[in-house]
Amino acid sequence: MASISRSDIARLVLRVGVGGVMAAHGTQKLFGWFGGGGLTGTAAHLESAGFRPGRLNAIVAGVTETVGGVLLAARLATPSTGAAVTSTMAVAAATHAPQGFFAMKGGYEYPAVLGLASGTLALAGAGKLSLDELLHQRLGGGRLALFSAVVTAGATALVLRRRQAALAEPTETSASAAGTHTVTGPATPAASGEASTSSPPRGATGQSLTMDRPEREADQPPL
């Protein structure tokens, strides 16, 4: 093995740190460890955020973070692993974007930092202190890194597009339902065969004109 540089040591520290954090977040989603919600809680949260179906997205996110974190820490298949983790963090950052940048206000600061670190590792490679180096970069070559970047970028765009479509569905449904209850024309008069509930016409004195005249004619003696 060639001489080890400070860059190799720095990449080792970064991989172990980022990989450990990602693996911890993944086990929160999958198993409920470290105070996480497990699959049930994560699926409900993702469903409400527009990632549907929630359980499938929870499994994908949990597996990507857990396996990706372990592989980053182990320095194996670093380009593909780093790209996959970057994709997951990009989706998380986009979800937090409406709350602004800073994490203390629910912003995208934290997932953005993890995503940038993972992406940097994917581009830079694992270094000499890695399993990729022991395998002669069979799983960490430049072509694989490029292929992983293209695939994960497409997957990220697809997931975010489907989320936007899912969030737009309730708005369109509500607008459609409101339109069906809106009166757009004048009230339709009652049909000729329907019973009328209006009062009969009255004279100047307020008495009904409907029955008065026949009754008076009946009281007069016949000629």
List the secondary-structure elements in sequence, H or E.
HHHHHHHH
| Amino-to-carboxy terminus distance | 138 Å
Percent range for β-strand residues? under 5%
Number of strand segments = 0
Helix content: 55-70%
Helical stretch count? 8
Mean pLDDT, as a whole number? 81
How many domains in all? 1
The structural class is: mainly alpha
Radius of gyration: 35 Å
Shape: elongated
Poorly predicted residue ranges = 182-223
Assembly level: single chain
Largest sheet: none
What does this protein look like?
The chain has 223 residues and is mainly α. It has helices at residues 6-31, 38-48, 54-74, 78-96, 109-124, 131-134, 142-180, 212-219. Helix 2 (38-48) crosses helix 3, helix 4 (78-96) packs antiparallel against helix 5 (109-124) and helix 4 (78-96) packs parallel to helix 7. The protein has one domain (8-167).
